Known about the structure:
Layout: H1 3-15, H2 24-36, E1 40-45, E2 51-55, H3 58-70, H4 74-81, E3 85-87, H5 89-95, H6 97-106, E4 111-116, E5 125-131, H7 142-158, H8 160-163, H9 177-196, H10 200-214, H11 218-227, H12 232-237
Antiparallel strand pairs: 1-2, 1-5, 3-4, 4-5
Helix pairs in contact: 1-2, 2-7, 3-6, 5-6, 9-10, 9-11, 10-11
Amino acid sequence: MDISRRFSTALARARSTGTDPQSLPCQLAQAAARALDVDGIGLTVIGDQPISLGASDEVAAIAEQLQFTLGVGPCMQSVATQFPIFATESFLQQQWPIFHDLLRSRTAYRSAVAYPLGHGLAGLGAMVVYLRSPAGPLDFDSSDAQAVSNFISTELTTSQEWANRHQPGTQRWLDTPTAQRRSATWQAVGMISQGLTVSITDALALLRGRAYATGTLIDDTARAVVTGQLPVHQMHEDTT
């Protein structure tokens, strides 16, 4: 069975669990993981405000959050360069040592490959394949993965149930569960910026620093800010 049929079959299976349009990105990620027989898939849109669209499972979602927590990783580089990024474990360790260490400690993944999304999402999004094998990018069919990223791009930009409400090139991706969590993170960044009178860039750096220092994910740290569990002024005190 060729990759097109494998993906279509896997997507039909994923969709059989629910018809809510908001779950489409996660269904696409699950279908991609099954069709490619890989350990995890993450889908992210990186515009002015990086937002996770969906993941094949909770572990893949954590891997995406780790990249955003640090602001580096194969996903962001793939979007920036518009080329696939083949990151064996040795490459991850060399290019992004902190991300590599966190990925090892928080997940079973040891390598990744990131593919830029196309069509209306060109320059905005990426699909990341997560692999348990340290040499994973050398051992799987990249042409199939590239084809799957194209299928996903087409689905997100042409599906009537999704694309009509999410115009390409915008940040109106906020009604998926994973995106709603990331939306709260940007709310926290705004609160820190306003409360400490610092730029958005500096506020994001403070949030990332706090998350890294406490061994938490940035979305969890942001939730503490938004709910008042972590007072904004404490962000400044922790850096002085």
